[in-house]
Amino acid sequence: MLPGLEIMPSVPHWYRGRMALVGDSAHAPSNSSGQGVSLAVESAGELARCLRDLPDLATGFAAYERRRRPRVEKIASDAAKTNNQKAAGPVARTLFRLMAPIATKTFMRPEKMLGPVHGYRIDWEDTVAACLKTRRQEDRFPGEHS
Ligand SMILES: Cc1cc2nc3c(=O)[nH]c(=O)nc-3n(C[C@H](O)[C@H](O)[C@H](O)COP(=O)(O)OP(=O)(O)OC[C@H]3O[C@@H](n4cnc5c(N)ncnc54)[C@H](O)[C@@H]3O)c2cc1C
């Protein structure tokens, strides 16, 4: 029911002079691919290899882009296809726009939905021995009772 995601378009040039792009600056796939970090690390490794093994920056950068572009663009386009299949039609999009402000103020509040994961705190001042005696609510697993 969510509207289609905005996807970063293909970047025409990955390097110029002494500068080369790596990671999201060159290829940010839709987050639905779950591959952004892996691709960034792979590209960094490939760039390092190309600069290690080729005689100058221009040749190294060109080889880097040639070796990486097909893979990252395939992953980005597969993710875009998945997103399009899941994207809502015009009626659902209108409903979503109308409902979203109400939903985020009531049952879809970010603190409620994301709080248990993103709001985790470690109380540095609290000693571990004291924690073991009285396990705090936030130290328990979801569904676990005292
Ligand atoms: C909501 C969301 C969910 C995601 N989920 C996943 C997932 O589940 N799995 C996955 O693999 N990927 C996921 N990604 C993608 C992943 O986060 C990125 O692909 C990855 O972080 C890219 O790494 P990067 O080093 O290229 O860029 P970044 O991680 O964005 O690092 C760039 C860094 O440069 C810094 N910076 C920017 N401008 C300057 C400047 N002028 N000077 C100095 N520093 C600067 C920024 O502050 C930042 O720290 C997700 C992304 C989003 C937004």
From TrEMBL:
Q: Which domain of life is it from?
A: Bacteria
Q: Name one GO molecular function term.
A: monooxygenase activity
Q: What Pfam families does the record point to?
A: FAD_binding_3
Instruction: Enumerate the UniProt keywords alphabetically.
Output: Monooxygenase, Oxidoreductase
Q: Which residues form the FAD-binding domain?
A: 13-76
Q: Which InterPro entries match?
A: FAD-bd, FAD-dep_Monooxygenase_BioMet, FAD/NAD-bd_sf
Q: What is this protein called?
A: FAD-dependent monooxygenase
